[in-house]
Structure formats: structure tokens, C-alpha cells
Amino acid sequence: MSTPPSPAGTWRTDESAVRIGALVPLTRPGWVGAGQHLLAGLELAVREVNDDGGIGGRPLELVVRDTAADPQRAAAAVDELARLGVAALAGEYHSVVARTAAARADALGLPFLCSSAVLDALTEQPTEWVARLAPPQSRGWQTYADFLLGAGHSRIAVAVQPSVYWASGTRILRDHLAPRGGTVVELDTQELDPTAVCDQLAEHRATALLLLVGHPEPAVSIVKSVRHDQRLAEMLIGAPAGQPELAEWAALLGDDGAGIPFLRYLPERLSALGARVETALREQLGEAPSFVAFEGYDTVAVLADVLRSHGVDRARISGSWPRVAVEGTRGQIQFSRTPGISVWQWTWPPVQVVDRDPAKPDRFRILHAG
Fold this sequence. Notes:
The protein is of the alpha/beta class. It has helices spanning 32-51, 71-84, 95-108, 137-150, 164-177, 194-204, 219-227, 247-253, 272-285, 291-310, 314-319; strands at 18-24, 60-66, 88-91, 112-114, 130-132, 155-160, 183-188, 208-212, 236-238, 262-264, 326-328, 331-333, 335-336, 344-346, 352-357, 360-369.
């Protein structure tokens, strides 16, 4: 159980708080469940920093803005947070939103530690201002492609919606599978309803369908249609973006939502720190924390370490990325420059392919690790 935050009166009134701006999707069409877990991790870490004396005796304060998965709303939030004097930005789950936020932060000279977004090209040009905890999409989705091949699947269908993120994922899968004898056929869910998707799967003789679509819809409707189509009884359904991890998925789909492999960024075994944080997050959320909650916690852990060592000057914060060495909940966090990645990148977070156990859907099975 986490200790409650210290009373405000314990802080000297002549010193103002050190503020971090937090970008989080908390309303639709954002993935609200992921946003809630991300925020829980951020808030828990801030409480613990303050219980431990804050930043040089000054309280750490989180200034939260809801992006609602809207890039323009995120850009406006970055502008506002910069005017409010935050030392750095944290958070964001949706890759397309994080890309806009990162570009704006770069233009303003505002350090941004991105928690969860995975697009390889998070910024158009290399930047010193942005660092990232989540693995790049190419690393995670290539691991997922290796899992598919290892499980005997080479004829892959993807149900897609228009998005830079989904298009990037499709390209990564195709480029990784093609030299190994795999094929990828795209099914456009703007043109095909769930029944038509099933017809196309049968026609193409695909053995695996990947859901590169929004949650809960059309993902939930597609899963229900495939699960109840006798022609597709052996069809593997996959969701590399991680939709099945959160409790809402299980609530909406029940047993139909089990056995759907997805990517998550956790080690096989949590360290003592990770186990302690998991217990505190579980109590805070009232459910098992997803990897996104750990990403939130680790984000603040890194920023607090940087702020203690280098102060609140934005240029000094951004200049510190290559010197970070912080024990996070999922391993030692250090940033480096990686070919093809335009931001400072943690190399590497753990990557797993997991699913909900059909025999016990509230239990996760590790199927593959990268």
C-alpha cells in the first residue's frame, strides 16, 4: 500500500512546486482504460517522490491534461503547459497524438519523456528534447511476427482502419514476414462489416487475423463474429496493440476475449521494486495494473531523478537523457541513440507476447518473449 501524500503544510511556503505536465487520454475517443492506468502510475510515483522529500525539498506536482486521443488538443495542451512553466512533459498513450505533442515540445524547447507511444518516427527529425520509455513499434511488432511464424502462421490477415499507426504496423509485419515466406492481406473495415470480414478470411484461407482497429469498436464486434463463424473455428485472433490486457476487454467479450495474443512490455518476473509498485497500483486501481501503469510510474521515476540531479532548467533536463541510469519497475532504464529512431530511446524495455488463458481469462499466459 502506498503512503498517503504528505500534508501541504510540511512544505516551506516560500518555495513553489516543481511541475510536470502530464498528457493522458481520459475521455473518448481516447482509450480511457489505458489513460486511467497511465495516470495511476504517474500519480503513484509523484506521491512517493513527495513522501521522500520531493525535489530538493520542493513538492513535485502533476499538471494533467486530457488529450482525448486528439492531436490538436494535445498540441494546445503542450502550449498551455509550456506557458504554465512546467519543467517537463510526461505521458501519452496514443502514438499519433504523441507524435504531435513531441513535435510541439521540440519546437518549444520543452523536455518530453513519452511513456507509452511506440511509432518509430515519433518526430520527423532527430531531436534532443524527447526521450521514450516504450519500445519502438518495429521492435515490438517484429517480435509479434516471430511469434506468429513460430506458431505456424504464415497466411496473415489484418483488419485495419486508416491510421499512421496501423499503417506502420502493417508495413512492419509485411516486411518482416515476407522474407520468411509469410503473406499479409489487408481487410479494410471501413468497407467491410464484421460478417464480410469473416467471408474474406474464409476466401483467403488465412490462419490468423490481427485486429489493427479501434477499441471497443469495431474490435469487439469482429471478435464476436469470428468466434461464432464455424468456418473459422481454427482461426487465431491477435491484437498486437494490446487491447485484451485491460479489464474492459474481458468485461465486453467474456470467454470470447481469451486466447487473443497481444504485446505487453513487462519482464517475466518483476523485481522487488516492481512487485511493490504492482501491489500499490492494484490497490489504487481496484484491478490488476497493466504494463501502461508501470510505464507511467517509470516516467516519473526517471524525471524525478533528472530533476534532483540537474534542476528545473529545460535545456539541462534534455541534455541529461544520455546520462540517465534509473532502476525502474521493469529494469534498468538508460537512453541511447538508435538507428531509425529520432528520439532518445530506452534500449530496451522487455517485450512479451501474452494472452488471457481460455481456462481462466483473468490469468495471463506468456507465449513468447523478445
